[in-house]
């Protein structure tokens, strides 16, 4: 019998069970899905969702965290705060030294406006995600950051006007 909380995640659960089968079982996946929706959820509620005892839910959650498989963090919801954000795709200059690229990444990690750094394979080398109080300031700060770098060949700014999945009220209100 499928409990109502498991039914809530049924479509996702089948997908994640297939791609994560070598790493996580159904209980771990349900715990992760619940934490994804609400990082402050109690172990009691996790236990109900995963259909296990509270000590089991707590132990599973802690194990996932200790292994570094999940991280429970707080994120700013840019839409709610009316902040501007953008994805910046970056192509490095050919022949950049590894040290220069490392320095560039270190600078990005230290920049408070950048909230994500991802390395890519393909047309672009990196994705940096920036945020600021408004789009005008955002554009200025991105351009300053890129111009100061000696490793950037070119970049593309993609302004983010709406994020309907990861941090939206719509998803969170539907899941409750």
UniProtKB/TrEMBL annotation:
<dbReference type="InterPro" id="IPR019888">
    <property type="entry name" value="Tscrpt_reg_AsnC-like"/>
</dbReference>
<keyword id="KW-0238">DNA-binding</keyword>
<dbReference type="InterPro" id="IPR011008">
    <property type="entry name" value="Dimeric_a/b-barrel"/>
</dbReference>
<dbReference type="Pfam" id="PF13412">
    <property type="entry name" value="HTH_24"/>
</dbReference>
<dbReference type="GO" id="GO:0005829">
    <property type="term" value="C:cytosol"/>
</dbReference>
<keyword id="KW-0804">Transcription</keyword>
<dbReference type="InterPro" id="IPR000485">
    <property type="entry name" value="AsnC-type_HTH_dom"/>
</dbReference>
<dbReference type="GO" id="GO:0043200">
    <property type="term" value="P:response to amino acid"/>
</dbReference>
<dbReference type="GO" id="GO:0043565">
    <property type="term" value="F:sequence-specific DNA binding"/>
</dbReference>
<dbReference type="InterPro" id="IPR036390">
    <property type="entry name" value="WH_DNA-bd_sf"/>
</dbReference>
<keyword id="KW-0805">Transcription regulation</keyword>
<dbReference type="InterPro" id="IPR036388">
    <property type="entry name" value="WH-like_DNA-bd_sf"/>
</dbReference>
<protein>
    <submittedName>
        <fullName>Transcriptional regulator</fullName>
    </submittedName>
</protein>
């Amino acid at each position: 019998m499928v409990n109502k909380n498991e039914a809530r995640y049924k479509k996702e659960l089948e997908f994640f069970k297939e791609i994560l089968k070598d790493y996580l079982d159904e209980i771990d996946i349900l715990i992760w899905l619940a934490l994804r929706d609400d990082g402050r959820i109690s172990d009691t509620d996790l236990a109900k969702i995963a259909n296990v005892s509270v000590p089991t839910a707590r132990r599973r959650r802690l194990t996932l965290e200790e292994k570094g498989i999940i991280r429970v963090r707080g994120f700013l919801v840019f839409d709610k705060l009316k902040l501007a954000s953008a994805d910046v795709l970056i192509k490095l200059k050919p022949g950049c030294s590894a040290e220069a690229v490392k320095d560039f990444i270190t600078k990005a990690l230290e920049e408070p406006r950048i909230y994500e750094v991802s390395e890519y394979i393909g047309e672009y080398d990196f994705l940096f995600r920036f945020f600021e109080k408004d789009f005008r300031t955002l554009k200025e700060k991105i351009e300053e950051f890129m111009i100061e770098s000696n490793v950037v060949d070119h970049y593309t700014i993609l302004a983010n006007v709406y994020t309907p999945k990861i941090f939206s009220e719509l998803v969170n209100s539907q899941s409750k």
